[in-house]
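for the writeup, i need someone to sanity check this before i put it in the appendix. the sequnce is what the collaborator sent (i think, or maybe the updated version? ugh). structure was predicted straight from it, no edits. if anything looks off just tell me and ill rerun, i have time this weekend
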Amino acid sequence: MDTLAVMAVYSWQLTLVVIAVYVPLLPVLRRVQKRQFEAYNRLTAFIMHDIKNLVAQLSLVAKNAAKHKRNPEFIDDAVATIENAVLKMNRLMAQLKSAEIMGDNKRVNLVEELRDVVAAK
């Protein structure tokens, strides 16, 4: 058998092996992608909620600043609000850096996932 024929046979066998291994993994990969997307959505909702609240607080301070700029109690409250907002933003950034809010990061047992997919069919 010449080299080209041998390469063609091995290429065909490799293609069959890839198909035999990859195709059953598609449902598992879809489930993993779905979980990742759900985690991303939860993270985005968490971040947006915190940012929305901080913007609302700071907007209220900015809105009332011109009217109450000579009121020492307002100034004290405004400074406290700004300090609190900075504290919350720093905490949020620290959590994002450390990935504490990312949820469960665990290994996926593909064999078990495949069994679940096959059992579900």
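The helical segments are 3-68, 72-98, 110-120. The chain has one domain: 3-120.
thx in advance!!
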